[in-house]
Amino acid sequence: MGRQADRPNPSGGSRPRSLALAAALSLIAAAASAQPLTRGPGDRPSPITLSIEADSGVLWGMAKELVYVGSYKLSELDYPLQPLAYAGGRIEIGAFGGLDATVRFDAGIPSKSGSMTDSDWDYIDYPPIPPGVQTNFSQSDSYLQRAILFDARIGWKIAASPALVIEPFAAYKYLDIKWSAQNGYLQYPPQASPPYTAWSPSEAKVPLYGTVLTYSQTFMIPAAGIRVIGRVSGSLSIEGSVALSPFAFLNDVDEHPLRYLAFYDSMAGGFYFEPELAVSWQAASNFELTMRLSYLSIVEPNTGTTVMLDTNPNDAQYGIPTLLTGQNSGGTLSAFGAEVGARLRM
What we know:
Layout: H1 2-6, H2 14-33, E1 48-69, E2 72-95, E3 99-108, E4 111-120, E5 136-156, E6 158-161, E7 164-187, E8 206-207, E9 211-231, E10 236-256, E11 261-284, E12 287-310, E13 321-323, E14 328-345
Antiparallel strand pairs: 1-2, 1-14, 2-3, 2-4, 3-5, 4-5, 5-7, 6-7, 7-8, 7-9, 9-10, 10-11, 11-12, 12-13, 12-14
């Protein structure tokens, strides 16, 4: 009986096929005549969205290592980013309800990045002189050895209107930058006993050769922020965001190969601030070009701890860490950024 029921009816089989063909033709005609939907930045055409972006940009600014004794400055090393060029990309995933997650990774391109300067306000082998009197100065060519820029964000998009989206977000930022200072000169006035001789630009320059210093900064920053996305026209949108945190952590390493010394600084409670402005042009239905401008500022309080390590294998103290109890470390990083990106939406 089952096989009999599966057989087509010879007398009426053509009618269902005609009805199906007519329905299909009607759907095709309706689709062909339909107008495309105009989507705002908050619209979500599918449960999950994915975009992949390739980007390249520059950071132009300065990093500082600061050392204090009591309330006044003992030492300052300035490492420039002039510029720090990088390339990489980001992945953004969206889901129903407004959930939005972005991961960004960029790597710096090793290159010369300006001139490093090292200034001291005390002849290190003697008690400190009064604040404000500089005693030592050196300058060397600065080279970027590495730079890793990582960001992870998760937020919730709220559609205020068809053309405006507001997104609060939580973020984590990781920065790891290393420089080397090579060649150059130093100006160290002869110091024998107090009062010590102050540094002058006319002081005789003693040439330096090879690697004089290396310095690295590693920031770990949990942060929060807000992003606003506005649709100006069907193909143009503007985005503004700001992220900040009072919990920026910094570990840095200051190595002096000529003196066989390395200093390890640890700081917490720094303030991080990063506003960004972006303009995007939708060149095709799933392809966008974006330009971003940003400013990055991280300031660590001068309350960090410093551990000194002797790196001379011939010394009895080789490899033994020493906590410097009379000094406090600090550090800063500030830079303007410009970036272009090409994004493919899936």
